[in-house]
Structure formats: C-alpha cells, structure tokens
Amino acid sequence: MRTPFTLRLFQSMPRGGWIALAIFAAVAWIGVPVAHLALPESHPLHVFAYTVSLLGKILCYMVVAVAMDLIWGYAGILSLGHGLFFALGGYAFGMYLMRQIGRDGSYGAELPDFMVFLDWKELPWYWAGSDSLLWALFLVVALPGLVAFVFGWFAFRSRIKGVYFSIITQALTYAAMLLFFRNETGFGGNNGFTDFKRILGYDITSPGMRVTLFALSAALLIACLVLGRYLVTSRFGRVLAAIRDAESRVMFIGYNPLHYKLFMWTLSAMLCGLAGALYVPQVGIINPSEMSPANSIEIAVWVAVGGRGTLVGAVLGAGIVNLAKSVFTVYLPEYWPFVLGFLFIVVTLYLPDGVVGLWRKLRARRAAAALDDASAAAGAGLSAAIGGAPAEVPATERQAARSTADTPIAKGANA
Amino acid sequence: MLCVLMALAALPARAALDPALVQGLGGDFNARVAAIDALGVAGGDEAAALLDALEGGRLGTVDGRLVVIAPDGLRDATSGEALAADAGAATRITVNNRLRRAIGTARAALALSSAQPAQRLAAADTLRENASPALLPVLARALAAEQDDAVRAVLRYATAKLELASPDPALRLKAAQALGGSSDAAVKNLLAALLEKRGDGAAATWVEADAEVRAAAAASMRAIDRRIGLAQTAGTLFSGLSLGSILLLAALGLAITYGVMGVINMAHGELLMVGAYATFLVQGAFRSHLPEYLDLYVLAAIPAAFLAAALVGIAMERLVLRHLYGRPLESLLATWGLSLVLIQAARVLFGPQNLELANPSWMSGGVELAGGVVLPYNRIVILGFAAFVLVLIWLMMQKTRLGMFVRAVTQNRPMAGCVGVPTARVDTLAFAIGSGVAGLGGLALSQIANVGPAMGTGYIVDAFMVVVLGGVGQLAGAVWAALGLGIVAKFLEGWAGAVVAKILVLVFIIAFIQKRPQGIFALKGRFADS
Amino acid sequence: MIPTLEIERERAHLDAERENQREHWDGSAADGRVYRPGELDLSHKVILYLDDITVSFDGFRALNKLSLTIDAGELRCIIGPNGAGKTTMMDVITGKTRPDSGTAFFGQTIDLTRLTEPEIAHAGIGRKFQKPTIFEHHSAFENLELAMKADKRVRRTLFASLLDDERDRVAEVLRQIRLDQAADRPAGLLSHGQKQWLEIGMLLMQEPRLLLLDEPVAGMTDDETERTAELFTSLAGKHSLVVVEHDMAFVEALGGKVTVLCEGSVLAEGDLATVQADPRVIEVYLGR
Amino acid sequence: MLKVDTLNQYYGGSHILRGLSFDVPVGQVTTLLGRNGVGKTTLLKTLMGLVPAASGSISFDGRDITRAPSYKRVAAGIGFVPQGREIFPRLTVEENLLMGLATRPRGSAIPPRIFDMFPVLKQMMARRGGDLSGGQQQQLAIGRALAFGPKLLILDEPTEGIQPSIIKDIERAIRSLAETGEMAILLVEQYYDFARALADQYLVMERGEIVMRGAGADMDRDGVREALAV
Amino acid sequence: ADTIKIGILHSLSGTMAISETALKNVALMTIEEINAGGGVLGKKLEPVVVDPASNWPLFAERARQLLAQDKVAAVFGCWTSVSRKSVLPVFKELNGLLFYPVQYEGEELEKNVFYTGAAPNQQAIPAVEYLMSEEGGGAKRFVLLGTDYVYPRTTNKILRAFLKSKGVSDADILEDYTPFGHADYQTIIARIKHFAAEGKKTAVVSTINGDSNVPFYKELGNAGLKATDVPVVAFSVGEEELRGVDTKPLLGHLAAWNYFMSVDNPQNKAFIDKYRAWAKKNAVPNADTVVTNDPMEATYVGLHMWKQAVEKAGSTDVDKVIAAMGGQTFKAPSGFTLTMDATNHHLHKPVLIGEVRADGQFDVVWQTQQPIRAQPWSPFIEGNEGKQGL
Ligand SMILES: Nc1ncnc2c1ncn2[C@@H]1O[C@H](COP(=O)(O)OP(=O)(O)OP(=O)(O)O)[C@@H](O)[C@H]1O
Ligand SMILES: Nc1ncnc2c1ncn2[C@@H]1O[C@H](COP(=O)(O)OP(=O)(O)OP(=O)(O)O)[C@@H](O)[C@H]1O
Ligand SMILES: NC(N)=O
Ligand SMILES: [Mg+2]
Ligand SMILES: [Mg+2]
After folding, report:
1. B-chain residues within 8 Å CB-CB of A321?
2. pTM to 2 decimal places
3. pLDDT of B158-174, one tens digit each?
4. If residue B176 lies in a helix (H) or strand (E), which one and from where to where?
5. Which chains form contacts with chain C, at 3 or more CB pairs under 8 Å?
6. Residue ranges of the domains in chain C?
7. What domain range includes position B270?
8. CATH code for position B496
9. Does domain D2-228 have CATH number 3.40.50.720?
10. What is the distance between the alpha carbons of residues D80 and D77, in angstroms, rounded to a whole number?
C-alpha cells in the first residue's frame, strides 16, 4: 500500500523537528510582530526595527545555507557560485523595487536614476515587465533557475565533478560580478540598486512592511526545511547521496546522475533566488559584490560550521557565523576577525561534524550515561554509528568509512 | 625669439652667461622655459650648474633677484657673491614637469660634448625625442664632431627629424630616407603628416610638395610599421608569459599543498603575504644596516621568505591541519579561519596600509625593443625566477624519495604508514616546503604588485584556478595553465580591454573544463574515475 | 618505428571497417532491423554478442579482437590469467570503456557501444565489480532498495514509497545474503566478505537479464562459495550469467561452459574438463 | 617472534576482538582462519597499528609495540599485505615497489627475486599501479611487502584474485621463505586448501575469539574445514 | 546623558581597511582634541567605533544600529560611493546625520549628508585644465584610465564632456577600464605608450582605485613612461597610497586634491603634529611614518564644523544642526578657510595640484586662489541644467 504523500511529508521529520518548527513559526509569525508593532519602545520585550531587519537578513542567509547544504551535503557538489543565484534573485526583485521608486528618484524621472545618468532614454528590453510584482516574482525564481539549469546541464553532461565543478562555478560568479560592475550592463554598476521606496505601493520602511518581510523570510525558511527534509529522506535523496558516494556505481544500477544532479542543482539555485529576493528589500541594497567569490565561499563555511548534510546544521551555521559577525563587528571592531577565525579553527578541530555533530555526540553520551554498564555504552556507540554520526568510531576507521564519500575537492585531489 | 636663440647659439661655448638670460629663470613660466632652452644652447659648466640647482630645488628669488640657496646661505646666481639675507628669505622656484622636460633637453644638449660616449648616447637619445628646431645647429655641430658610430646613428635620426621641415627638398629627401631605419611611432607620425593634403577637394595640395620625398616617406613608414608591429606582437607575447609566470608563482605553493597533499588551503594567499612581508623586513634590515648593499636585498630575501613562510606553514600544519588529513572539507573551513587570523595579525602588527618595496636598481627599468615596447627587468627576472622555482619543485617531487613519499601518503595514508613511511613527518615537511614555495611566490609578487595585509585574497582565486585548470596534482598542468591563461588574457586584453578580457578568460575556463573535465593534464586510467 | 606504423595501419583499417559497418547500420531499413535501444530481442536465443572488440590503453592491447557470444539463459564462466582482459571486457559491455573497434550487441537489437551506463543498466545488464563497490553511507537495506528494479527517473523517485511487497523482497534478499542482522548498518562498516554478498544482493534486486559477476567469491569461505554456486545455478535459465573466477572448484560447481581469455582474446572454450586439459591453458593459467 | 596477549578491540561499542592471545614463531607459517566478519582483518590492522588496541599487548622480537606507530613496526621488520591490495594507484609499479623499501637506506634496489616470483611486474614497471588488473595489483602488494626483507610477514587473503598458477608460485615462495628459518609468517586465508598446504600452525577465529588452534598437519583431522562452514 | 555619542563607520577589515582605517584614527584624534577643549555644549564626545568590514549591506546594518540603538548624534564614515548609497536610506529614514569625507562623483544631494570631500569640479576638472595649460605641459590628448565602477565612469563622463567643450576630439581621448584589484598593467601601459606616440602631447587621467595603483605605478616606472613625457594625474592617490610605492621612478606624476600633507602653514603643522602624537600614543603600527591626507583632513574639518554647528544650534538635534551647518567656516589645515554651503551641503574647497617627490610627498605646483564652490550636479551631464541645491 502506498503511503499518502502528505503523510510522508509529515513523516520525513521527527516529532522533535516539527515541534521546533512550530515554536519557531510561532515566534516569527506572532511573537516578533507583536513585540515589534504592539509593544512600546520602552518595553523590555520590544523588538527593535534594527533587530527585525538583522534577523530577517539572517533568515535569508539561512535559506541560502539550506540550499547549499542540499546540493553540497546531500549531492556532494560543492558550489562556489551560490552567491550568484542569490544575487540574481536579489537583482530580479531589485528591478521591481527600482521601478516602484517611480518619480521619487534624484532626477525625478520615470527611469531609474542610473539610467538617466547614462543618457538612456528608455528601459532596456530586459527590464520589460519589471514594474509588475508577478513578473518580478517569476524572474526571482526563473532567472537563477535558468542560469543554473543551462550551466548545470552542460557541466553535468560533460561529467565535470568535484573541484573542477567548484572552480567553474567560482569562475561563473566571478565573471558575472565583473559583468555587473559595468555600468553598461544596465544594473547600476558598482552602486547597484538602493534607495528603495515601496512594494505594491506600501512604504518599505514602515514597521508593517518590515514585519511582513521578516515573516515571509521565516515562512520561506520553514518551507525550505520541510521541503529539504522531505527530499533527503525520500528515495530521491538516497539516490542523490549514492551519487555523491559512488557515482559510477549508481549509473550501473540504472539511474542517470545527470538528471538527479541537475534537478537538485536547479532547485537549490531557485531557493537561493527566493532568499535573495527577500534579502534585498530588508537590507536595502544589492550590488555586484554579492557575487564575489569570497561571498560564495562563505556560504560553504556557514554550512561547514553547522555540520554538513544535516539541514539543521546549515541553519545553525548561518545563524552563528552571521550573528557573531554582527555582534563582534560592533563590540570588537578591530579584533573580530580573530574571533571568527579562531571559531572556525576550533569548530574544525573539536567539532568534526560541526555544531550539530557536537549535539549528537552529547546526546549519545547522555544516552550512554543513562544505562551505566558497558554493554549500554556499546549500544549507544552503535546507535550513533547507525545514526550516521560515526563520531565514536576511531579516527582512522572513520576515514576509511568515509573514503569514498570524500568531498568533491578531495576527489579532485586524489583523482 | 627663434632668431634670438639662433644668435645665441652662435656664441662661443665657453662664454660667460648673460645675466639677462639667467634672470629669466626667476621670471614667469614662459621666461623660465626660454631661459632653460637658452642655457642648453649656450652650454658650459656654469649653465650645467645652474640647471642642477634649478632641478634640485636650490634656486630661488629674493626681491626678484635670482639666488642659489646653499646650505650656508644665499648666493647670487650669476655673480656667485654671497648675500646677507638668510635662506628663509628666498622664494624657492618650483620645478614642474614642463620645466623638468626643458631641463632634460638642455642637459642633453650640454652632454653632447661630454667625453663619455655613453653619456653622449643618452643625450642624443633624449634629443632624438625632444629636440626643438633651435637645437638643429647644436646637433649638426655634434654630428660633425662625433666619432662613435652608435651616437652618430642616433644623432642622425635626431637631425633627420628636424630636417624633415627643412626648406631644401634634397635635405628632406635624405631625412625621409634616413628615418626609414627608425622604429619610433612618433617618427611615423611625422612622416604621415607629409603625406596629407591641405585644403579641400581639387584645391588641395600636398603638405610635402615633392613627390620623391613623399615616396621615400611612404616607404620609410612601411618599414617602421613593420618593425613596430613585430615588436608589439613580441611585447604582447612577453606580457602573456610574464603574467603567466606570476600566476605560476602565485600557484606553485598551492600546487604542492593542495595539488599534491590535498589540503584545500584557503590561507595560501596569506602564505604569499608572509613571504612578501619577510622580504619587506629584509629590505628594512638592509636599509638600516647594509645600505651600501641595498640592491642585493632581494637575493637575501630568498631564503628569508622561504623560511618565514615555511615556519608559518609548519605551525599551521602542526597545530591545525595535522588533525584534518583525509577531511579536506574541514581543511577548507580551518584554513579559511587561519586566513582571517593571519590577515588581521598582519594588520595589527604592520598596519593596514601597503608596504613599500622598491625594485633594486638592477631590476628597475627595462630593455627596449623597437617601437617603445619595453620588457621590464623586474618581469624578466621574475620569469627566470619562476623557472628556477619550478625546476626546484620538479626535482623535489619527481627525483627525491621525499616527493614519492608525499605522493604516496596523500594517496593512501594508512598504507604509507604500513610500508614504513613516517607519515606525520612527511606531512609536515611537505607542507613546509609547499608553504616555503608560496613564500617565494610572495617575494616575487612583492616586486610587481602591492604588499599589504589583504594581498593574498587577490591571488587565491587565480591560484586555485591555475592548479585546477592544469589538473589537480599535475605540476606540468599548472605550468601550462598559468602560461596559457597569461597569454590568452593578454591577447584578449589587447583586443577587448581588461574588463571584458577578464570576463572572457573566465568564460574560457568554464568552456575549457567542459572539454577537459579533469584539467589539461587529466589523469587517465581506470583509477581516475572510480 | 615500424611497429607503430603497423599499428597505425591496422587502426586505419579498423576505422575503415567500422565506418563500413556504420553505413550498414544506418541502412537499417534494408534488413528491417532497428538498432535502437528498446525491448530486448532474443529471437536468436543469443543475449550477448561481442565481435572483434579491441581496447587499447596507450598502445597496450587489453582486448584484442575479442569475439564471444552468450546464449540466453546460459551460465558462462570466464577464466584466464591476471591481466587477460576479463574485467576490461565487462567494462566494455557495461559502457564504462568504449572499445576502439568492434561491436557489442545485447540481444539482436541493442547496440551497447552507443548507450550510456544507465541506459545499459536499464536495458537489463547488471554487474558486480571485482572490488566490491557498494554505497558505504547507506545501510545494507537502502543499498538493496536503491538497486531494486523500478522506474529510476527523477520524477518517480521523488514520490516513490516502498510498497509492502517491495519491502518483503528486500527482506528476502537480505536473508539470502545473510545480512538480515546487519540490515541497518552502514554498509561501509561491513567486512570484505559481507560487502561481496551485499553486492550480489544488489544484483539480485536489480533483476537484470544478464548478470556480469567479476570474482564473486573472492574472500569467501569454501562453504560460502558453495552456497554462491548454488545460488547462481538456480538463477541460470531465467537469467543469463557471465562469471569471472579464479577458483576452479567454484567454476566446477557452476558447471557451465568455460571460456579462457588470454592476452585479450579467446584462447580456449568448452567444458571445464576439456579446458583444464588444454596444455596452453595449463601453461598460461593453471600451472603445474 | 610475534606475541599477542589478551588483545581487545572495539568498534564504537561492539566488541570485535575478545582477549586474543597467540604466538607467531619464526621459521613457521601460522595461518588464521575464520568466516566473514569474525574480525581477522581487524586483528591484523591492530597488529599494524592502524587501529589502536583497546587493551592487551603486542610484542615483536621481544619488544613491546602495542602503542608504536605503524611505521616503527615496519622499521622493526614487519611486512604487511593488506586485504583489498591497497596499492598506491598513482605511483608506477616501480615506485610502488620502491615504497616497499621506505625503511631501507636511500638508493636501495628492488631485490630481483620479486620479479622472479611475479614476472608481470617487471613488464609493467612504468605502468601506474591503479591501471593494473586486480590480480596484478595483488601481486604488486605482495611484492611490495617482500621488498625490504621483513622478519615477519603478515598476509591478509593474499590469493584473492590471483590465477591458479601464480597461487602455486606464491605457495612455493612462502614455503621457502619460512624454511630459511629467519622469517615468521602470519597468513589469513579463506582458501582452505592453500591454508592447509602451508600451515605449520593454525588458528581459527570466531566472533573475536580463537576457538581452535593446533598444528597445521592436524587441520583435516581437527575438522577445521567443517568448523568454517555454518 | 552626559556624553554625546559620535558614530564612526569606517571599514577596519576587508578591502577598504587599507584606506579607511586612517580615517577612523583621525576621527578619534579629533574627538580627543575636542574633548580636551571642553567638549561640545559642555559634554564630552564619546566615539562609537564599529567595523562594517567593507561589506555594503553591513554598512546599512551598522548605520541603523548607530542611529537607532546607540543614538549617535552624527556619523562620520564611508569611503566608497556604494557604501554611502547603501547607508543613505537609513539616514533618511531615521533622520540621521552623515559626514562623508571622500571625493566622489557627485550626482547626489541629500539633506542628511554633508559632503566634505571634493565634487568633480573641485578636483577632476581643475586638474585637467592644468594639464592643458602651457604650464602643465599643454596636453592635447588624454587617456582616461580607471577602475571599472561608478566613480571613475562618472568622472570620466564629465571629463569627456568637458574636454569636448574645450575642443578635444573623441579621437584624442582614450578611455580604458580595469577590474577591481587588477594587477597587471602591461597591456594598458603599452597602449598608453602607443597612443602617446601617435601624436600630440598626451596626459593620463587616472581614477584607478585601491590596490591596483601599486602595480600600475610600478609598471609605469619600469616601462619608462616618465612624467616629463606623459604625466599621470590621479584622483585617488594620496600620501597614504604612496606609502606602498617606491616613488623614485614616479617623480613628477601628479595628483589633484584639496589638501596635501606638504602644505606649509601653521594649521597644517599643528594637524600633522597632533596626528603623529596621537599615533604614537595609541601605538598605531609604524607610528613614526604615519602620513596625513585629503580625506583625513576632510574628516577633521567635518568634525570641527559639526561641533561649531552644534554650538550654534545649542543642541544636537539633527534638523537644528543641519540648519546651523550652512555657512559654517573653518580654518583648515590646507591653509584655506572653508565654508559649508548651505544649499548643497558641500564644502567650498581649494584645488591643489601636486607632483610626486622622491620622499612620497607632493610638491604643490598649482593651486586655486580661493576655495571653489562644489557643483555636485555637474553641468557637463545632460539633465542637470538648473539643478542647484536641496
Ligand atoms: N587504463 C589502463 N591503462 C593501462 N593499462 C590498463 C588499463 N586498464 C587495464 N589495463 C591493463 O589491461 C590488462 C587487462 O586488465 P583486466 O583488468 O581486464 O584484466 P583481468 O583479466 O580482469 O585480470 P584479473 O584476473 O587480474 O582481474 C591488464 O594488463 C592491465 O594492466
Ligand atoms: N570501521 C568499522 N566500524 C564498525 N564495525 C566494523 C568496522 N570495520 C569492520 N567492522 C565490523 O567488524 C567485524 C569484523 O570485521 P573484519 O573486517 O575484521 O572481518 P574479517 O574477519 O576480516 O572478514 P572477511 O573475511 O570478510 O574479510 C565485521 O562484523 C564488520 O562489520
Ligand atoms: N567615491 C569614491 N572615491 O569611490
Ligand atoms: Mg579483473
Ligand atoms: Mg578481512
């Protein structure tokens, strides 16, 4: 008998996960809006506009991290170009925001300021329809999706793997960055898009809009997590992981890795695009530096900090790193790179499976302590091993078990 | 004015300087230029001394009177008598480019009578570029007296350039023919001007009336064009190779730490930085302790840069990376952290600004090919240095046991231990060597580009591209990739500009990997794809 | 100099021949056959044709004009010295290695040299590798589930859920390969022999028409070897099997026709006793 | 030569080796038999220092090596042929053999008897290890372990994937190595006939314990073959 | 509160740290100086230093935090135009006050911003006029070379229009751009040489920004392009940037600013001494070789003018301070008395043109007699006709 889809969607996450999500949703959709809109500033529980936008921004980063984890953690494809998809989504929505400025720009013209300044008399063709929210939303998903699909199609078809794939994604985003820096490209050059005024006519700086964007970001994150969780627990997810571990073997049992990778890759890019679209109105600017190679590497770093291949880890990693950055650039403006740098080193040395790995280890240890004889310890270790967190296994053996699942870069290195 | 100058030129070379003429130096801008020109034509030691004083900022005016500002007080510029007023009373005459150029030409005119052929040659070269018609007699005199063939040749060009404007068609013809041996674009323009027409339609007349001169000019132009074209192609090729050698030096260390050892070393750029900073410190030490040998600081920096980076590498390896072998993912994260730390450490210790590193004199300037194409010495030296480092690494990896051990350890660490290789020691040593080579890269880069805390971030992307494009673990691949990218980039840049060229190079890399998904030197064989 | 010339001439010749054949194939209407992947056509009772296959690596000929046919339902043993080309032959059949020349047909109509690995697998050829290759991070159960015969396109796997009979089938195979106790262990942690079994299990789940087994009993005890032999003989008839082994006892237990490969081509063929008596086989393979 | 005393080993929580004790005397072939997954390979890995022993001791040549790193064990004279070949795929055959001389002084030559035993290695000197066929790789792994002239040779299923004639050669070679009286040999085998033909002493393992032991000549009588069946 | 908070929003890490760190230093020094003089309205100033890390969204976030959380009275910060553009909406929304100390491309005017750096007509245009003058070498052909982003592109657009108005034809202008961080100037220098050899007197106008300058000047020196032949005038190269270059081969190349460290007057001497002392006291790396430059002076001037305006307004209230800022004057280290324009929020500034000396300082070879008024809306850009103040 086939289990109904909704039930399977529900089963894809453990109960604890659903409870955590529900709490998160309650806080994001009710707690924060109330605390921001209804409580007076003097109230100790008031959530400041600053905090709302900061958290909103971080939520968008978390979505990107989840998208990255889907493609890296579960499909073993390390993208060093995800910043591009994020930025494309941002630019697609930014075009709409620019059009919404209307005649309120510096030049009081119908065209965005930077075009007036370039002596352009009309919108270039690729701006057509950008004043429609629907079209903008379509582009937000379609543009990164299309770029990813075309790029992925050629790359996966040529069987580009591992570090070779990583490097060309980096080249792609780098090239796009240089292209967008040019004024002639028609996206405002280095200054990018800023000074947004409204969405659908509503003031973008109003508390209501701020909270709405925040809540939407939270919704997107929840949707991504549920979707991601479903994907990785489905047979599709198992095939993907199998491709990651032994691609040629997968082919010999009849799956075509090209289609699997391409699907996940394109989906991941689209999620990034959505995140970018929500990010731009919340931070108020999009410029080509979002496409810089270092930005994309950082996305990978978030995921690694949290724990690759766990989804939750990606969320935690993005949250921890970005919060740390936001906090320490304020409190330790001249020394925060030390703090962050050491954080990364300590995580790698002492938390080999990221923050999530630590949590699992602690849980395994607690379970072991609860039953206080040797065989119980054995059971716990075993369950840890079975649970996919072989933290208890001696290092050399863990390496052996991992050898085929090495990251793409390792494969490149050992190839 | 021209006549005045002509008249002046006829004066005997050693005549005392006309005070009126000299006072012009204290006058308005045009008067100064005129005075300098005149000094050049007049010649003599006094004129030279005055020019020196002017260029050195030691000439000033006190109440309109021209004075030389000496450490011990003021002296009148013409009479040399000491003045009572103290040095602060004088208004210094500022020298700007325009004056400096005039001074240069005047100096060259003076130097034509130098006893040293080398000085005369340099002077003739300057005049060839800048001589004004006023100097034609000086040139003619010098040419008549000149014995040295090389100097004569240059002088003849210089004269010919001026003679193109001569009223005598025969002289013009000779000049036009003589200039065919030049490879100077400016000369070409002079000739081209002769072939233009003045006026409109039927009424138009040739600038150069004489058909024979025109034909000679056209022939000479073609000859110059050919020479310039050749030199420019050679120049572009050289710039490509040079860029390639720089990419290679930036990438070689990584070719070991990443390519061979498999550590995704995001702190590679910072190892380059360590090498460059070590070079800076060596330069500083030479400046303060061995100023007379300052030119050799770069050589002394070779071991210093290597060791400094190697030590940092050893520390990195011992403290962090050693726990991460076989976990390349984690090495990405940890080295990213290390890179943040190293950059900020440099900022805190040395400040955020760029550091000044001077090319030693033997690395300054360049050899000039035809047509103004210059191959700078620093780039030539770096090209050679890249080859040197490359050979060193190649010998190390291919010809020593250590190289074999390193390769074996990365391919199968546990098994390498089981045949008796002390894997930990080999790792440290190999990482130290890779880091040291990165330090050498930093040394080389310091001679071309800026040295600052974040300098490494500019190279890390390129370095990874080179190593990967070549085929990971393939030293030869890295060489081809670096040189190939350099040359492609330079030819594209000449054609499309730097920005578009850079974009095209990246697109080229993407397309190239489609054709060769494992880099230029793909590993073939059954183990490669499993 | 001369040898290379010769090789080149030969290669040119082969190329020409291949070109000829292409022409012949393209004129598919002429003989009424369709050379495209599709239903396996066993009208001639032959499941695999290898004809004149040559594979070389940097001038070294791993396969040298190899020709071989396997009948439908047959159990064929391939033996031969180390380096004879047995594994390479399987690489060619499964699309991993493209032959320099020669043809490989699955049934009457499927040209293997034109298909990709997944297409070949889909057409009904399954393979067990010489070095056991399984998905180390997946449990033994999941390994089998993935291998299971099913629609393997993305849009199906996205929504696929395990049916009860499928679950039973996996459980049955797990018992068969004695891994029911280790069903949930990550396969990477299994011992060498257990991995061998798991890979055989995956092949069973795949239900291919043709099974290629490269040294399936290496690392198994004699007792397990016997069981494997029983398993394979029971499969024969419904499936076709090609087994590569160096264990003569096992080959004997299988009892099928034996082909001896040597230096990339067939040296001898026949039942085991005949082949074992062949002095050339003794010389290059069995030893004294 | 090698003395193992109440050795224990765990993977995570599962007890894989349970208090093993045995000797490997010099000049003899000791064969270790056992079904799949009983822990034979784990034992050998522990002997080589690839996994640390949880408790118990290992001594070699009178010296305690329980905690020594792998390379020191090799330097002390232990040669190892692992299960699954584990050759260095991107090194050439020659380099793989030279790796076997890692503990010898620089410039040591590969002893010619390796090529006498495995002529194919000589033909394929310049080919990369990973390109060899399975059986060729196995031969290379044995050659590599023999290259430096170990005092103790540990072999994990060395006949796997090797053609019959060469198995016979290996059998003869191991015999003669043991008979020189200077070498101890510990052989893990599934291939009963081969094990029996070589064994001076045998051990049978089950679930991490040695359940039978005796002289090689008594293997048939003791019913070792039957013990290995389910 | 008994202190007034001042936000300092300069990148201390990332690509811009190289330039902006010194601005943070000089702001802190000026605050100390003001506090030593009794503070403002009897209150001490309290600097709030944050690091936006050369990351534009982070600039906006930090700006919001300074204004909304820390409630700073004014913010001194930003260097790149994009960072300014990124914080602008925040300043407008929260009605904050930003002092922007760097020369920029103009085409902007905001009530909440005071621009203490130069607009194009206070730097680029006079520099080109100088090059065209007989004294400047009488250049007839121009290479407009820049980093590929908005400031150079805009500046060059203005310059092109200006040159056209002076009768320079398009054929005599070569415009070329390099990406950020470009480090290989061989091709460009060869092209300049070729262009210069083709005819009349040529000059290069460089809007190359940041790290590219070192390789550019090194290549320039080694390729033998001397200032006497083809002078290069730069708008983004000051004393701080020249610390990283061996200036011997660069003798005579030019820069146009509103201030040079080498300017000789009592205000400047005091400014430099104060900064040196501050650097020593605060253990700034290489404290004995620190230099001052134009944006540093602009920061210094800006802080002092803000102080004066607050005192005039008697409050730190933003609207009152804005009103009081107009017409403020300050005797600046450049030696001129600068005035804040009430209508366009830009300083009236003198233009100084300097030639590089061997010691990394500049010799002023030309300067305006008076400070000149900024034209943020360049008349050389179409559509700006009639645009004046706020
Ligand atoms: N990629 C390659 N490059 C070079 N030589 C290769 C390559 N692949 C296979 N060979 C060679 O081809 C020959 C055939 O190898 P193959 O693996 O097919 O042998 P086999 O019959 O399976 O041997 P075994 O019984 O040992 O498994 C061997 O000599 C091997 O060294
Ligand atoms: N890294 C590991 N972590 C956990 N369990 C492991 C690990 N490696 C092996 N095992 C388990 O330990 C047991 C012993 O494995 P080992 O490889 O030693 O068996 P073996 O006797 O060599 O078997 P075979 O004859 O199949 O090679 C097996 O049940 C195996 O599943
Ligand atoms: N405003 C500038 N120099 O970017
Ligand atoms: Mg084989
Ligand atoms: Mg085993």
Report:
1. none
2. 0.90
3. 888 888 888 888 888 88
4. helix B169-178
5. A, B, D
6. 41-124+210-287, 131-207
7. 236-515
8. 1.10.3470
9. no
10. 10
